[in-house]
Each structure stands twice: as C-alpha cells, then as structure tokens.
Amino acid sequence: MMNVGYEKYHTHITASKKRFEFNLPEVWKYKDLIILFTKKNFKLKYKQTILGPLWIVLQPVISSFMYMIVFGKIAGLSSDGIPQALFYLSSSTVWALFSTTLIQNANTFTLNAHVFSKVYFPRLTMPLSTALSSIIQFFIQFIIVIILLLFYIIKGEIYPNAFAIMMIPAILIQLSLLGLGFGIIISSITTKYRDLQLLVSFGVSLWMYITPVVYPMSQIENESLRNAIMINPVSVPVEMFRYFLLGAGHPNYIFYGISWAITIAVLFLGISIFNTVEKTFVDTV
Questions:
Q1: 7-48, pLDDT tens digit by residue?
Q2: CB atoms within 10 A of CB 266
Q3: What is the rounded (10 degree) CA torsion for 200, 202, 203, 207?
Q4: Cα 201 from chain centre
C-alpha cells in the first residue's frame, strides 16, 4: 500500500525532453505555482511606486491622450469615424496585451536563473504566469474602454455589433499566444546573446508603427504597402478587435487566417527552442 501511494506522487525528472513537448498535464499540476508567480509579477512590477497598480489604468489613458494630440490633431490621421479618445484607448489597450506579454517573457531565463538552478518545476509555468498577468492587466484596462464605449453608445456615436463582440476572446487568446511565442524565443536566444535584450523594447516600439494602432487600415491607400502591413501577424487582430468592439473597419478573414497560422508556427518554434535551451541554459546564463 505504501508503494501505491508513493507511485501516485512520484515524479521522474529527466533531461530527455522532446523538442515539441508541451507536457501540459505536468504544467497543470503546478497551477498553484502559476498563480503564485502571477501574484509575484504584479507585486514586483509596482513595488516601491507611488501610485502602485493605478499605473495599469494611467498608462493607456496617458498614451491615448498623447496619440490624440500627435496623430489625431497634429498629423490629422483618420480614426475611421470613431471618436478619437475611444479609437486610441481601445487600440493601445489591445496592443499592450501583446507587447507586455512579449517584453516580460523576453527575460524569462536571465531574470529567473537563480530560481531555475535551485529547484525543479516545469519551466513553462514561468512564461505562462507572465502571459496570465498580462491578460489580467488587459481586463483591468478594458473596464475603462467599456465605460468610454457606453458613453458614446448613449450619445449615439457608436453602434457596435453585439454578435461580433463575442469574437473578441479569440483575438485576445491569439495575441497572448503570439506574444508568448515571440517572448520565449527571444528569452531563449538571450541566454547566449545578451545584447538582444537591449533591442527588445526598441524593436517592439518600432513594431507598433507597422501595426494599425495609431491609424486604421483604411488610411493606407497603396495596395502593396497595405498587404505588407497586413502580413504582420498583429495587424489584422488589432484591426478586427476594433471592428468587433466598435463596429468600424473592414476585417480581412484571409489575412486573419494567415495571422493565426503564423501565431501557431511561432508558438511551436518557441516551445521547441525553449525546451532545447532549458537543458543547458544554466551553463550559459
């Protein structure tokens, strides 16, 4: 009887992991650890700050205000008939979900080397907890978007499609998976090439400008340039998020399918590299 109980909770740790092995049952066993890491991410991010978690709300609001001045007033870019405040706030909020997931996961190995080298747990729990914290942050910011949306609905300036709103979770899942995939790829590479860390935030900032965050796709008249921007796997999800939520824009389901294909490919590539690097990263970090 003692042997039966032992076998039930026995875990065999080995380095012979397959490159595309997700090992989700084992990750699920450590769900409490994922929750613990998620709480830790929030505490560390806003520790010793004056406003604390209030920055979660202030960041997209301040960013949207600056976009209204620079791109709306000075540059005179179109907002597809959507009130500028709502256009920029919704765009910056959904973009933040992707960019935050990517940037925070880009340092998974280097920031947590002291933990990885001392105790065993499924390494994938760390980037998953980071993605989860980004999703929670998104929903907090999304409350402000909904309040502003209701204001313009009451004024009669916005007419969202109630059925289309149900498609928003698919957009959020895709952007989280895409940010997770790119994040763990970068994290795996930076275990050996540290200078890549310096390019991440800069690269993500540039990425935003080839994504329709501060402008709608209707603003781009050149067909070749338009198609090039839509190949960007983040472009169509951002455009479709505004279409589903605000009822403005022209979704392209062909490019949306391409975007999902790229997302899945990036995620599997990320898992492959992650599983390969985690065996020996302690020797290089």
A1: 444 554 555 555 556 566 666 776 777 788 777 777 776 665
A2: 20
A3: 130
A4: 14
